[in-house]
Write a structure and sequence with these properties.
- There is one protein chain.
- With 323 residues, this protein is an alpha/beta fold.
- The protein contains 9 helices and 17 strands.
- A hairpin with a 2-residue loop joins β4 and β5.
- The radius of gyration is 22 Å and the shape is elongated.
Length: 323
Amino acid sequence: MLGYALHTLANHLADAMTLAIDDQSDVLIVGAGPAGLTAATYLGRFRRRVLVADGGPPRACWIPVSHNMAGFPKGITGDAILTRMREQAFEYGAVIEAGRVEAIHRDGEDFIATLNGRQVRARAVLLATGVVDHHPDLPGVEDAIKRSLVRICPICDAYEAIDKCVAIIGHDNLGVREAAFMRTYTDRVTLIHVGAPEALTERNALERLGIRLVECAIEAVEIGEERITALNWSGGRHAFDLLYSALGTTPNAGLARDLSVALTHDDLLKVDAHSATSIPGLYAAGDVVKGLNQIAVATSEAALAATDIHNRLRKADGQTVQV
């Protein structure tokens, strides 16, 4: 994450100077994670004027090493993924500015966004704002995530947990489902349920799958160099190779709610097959959209959104042909 910040600081300063002169873009992209940066590259290659509002390190920065990225059989860090994506977006003319978009409203067919104390006009907007992970309240959890001892995505890295001793921490049935998912990889799985007893309604599945259940709060944790040397709870002290958090996420959907965009029951953005939301000209891609939270999925959604945005603007400018 530090490398990501140092790499982008000089670019942020230069871009802010450019944008102080020109605040009119074809497309405003809110978020500089894999989805936002992929869309910026596509739109730059479509010769569109693109402004990316970078609100801070995305959750991809937490990836110690990804072995799911096609083309990187030896693995690649989240920091390296983002650095490569930023360089590619810059190559095709995208402008990336540090700062959070505070508000967006419609102005005729356009959008007006408040960014760093000024108004930015765009003909289309892509929301790639992602989600915030609910990390367990454990001392040293951020460092443990960086070292892959505490993990947040079994789809990403459960393969590396084969035959290891794994704990899942959860507060509802999401913990049960994640523990069941891990049984593909190891038969040493413990679910530590820290929520209300009534929130756990799938107990029979745990017994059927041979998953140990512990129902109490974690009182203390000791994190070693290569494993979690101890998790302490009332009457128990156990070591694990890995701890997975199944505590859920919160979508960064505030801008969408303010625009009265259609949302799912869990506050994710509803989009069509082209990643368009219920508001014309407003698109969304990545983890803030209902679906599988994977970089490959986010980049696919971003490619669909960018292409549809370009074609929509071409049509508005009379550059399409009726067949």
